[in-house]
Give the backbone structure.
Amino acid sequence: MKKVSCIILDDEPLAVELLKTYASKLQRLEVVLATTAVFDVITFMQNNKVDLFFIDIQMPELSGIQMMELFNKDSHFIITSAYPNYALKSYEFRVVDYLLKPISFDKFHKAVTKFLDNSKEANEPSASFLFVKVDGKQVRIHTDEIYYIEGLSDYIRIHLKVERLVVHDTLRDFIAKLPDHHFMRIHRSYIINLYKIKAVDGNSIQHELGYIPIGETYKNEVKSWIENQ
């Protein structure tokens, strides 16, 4: 799963920290820089490219409009502003969404999903199978046959309909090998195949093989996914 590199730029430190927290809940996002200093961003961009900016409009040194003029060629933008009057001007650039403060996680998540759904990276075909090492041999499994993956410290247990495979890997590394928009981590110990979900029942997800708990820190992400279906 290809990560989306992003920069968070806002002149309010609390706003930067809030957006960093939101971004950490989404597995596709990789925050490469989060700052209140526009010139730190300019210096960073001299040798790097990023996919997505979360950017404020009114800032003391350079405005968000000026920053978009500099980096519009290579990046997309999600505006995070307390002022709606810049919306029309901002859409001269590669703006995905315009979020008015205060920004909820749900609105943040919907804006990111909008970017992913319309980006080339999100629409690239993903492999329908992968190989995992089990008992010394490489075993081919189709990803649509996976119901869920269970974390066991340095190992994972892959639950298929008729068998379970124990693999030397971690949930964090394994989810990066899975197709985009197909799997979600819903607990520190579980990844679920979204297409196998039958129901969400309180704090657990029901599928054909049983129930999986939803971790407290993952509830908002599960809720947002449901609302966007």
Summary: The CA atoms of residues 26 and 67 lie 25 Å apart.
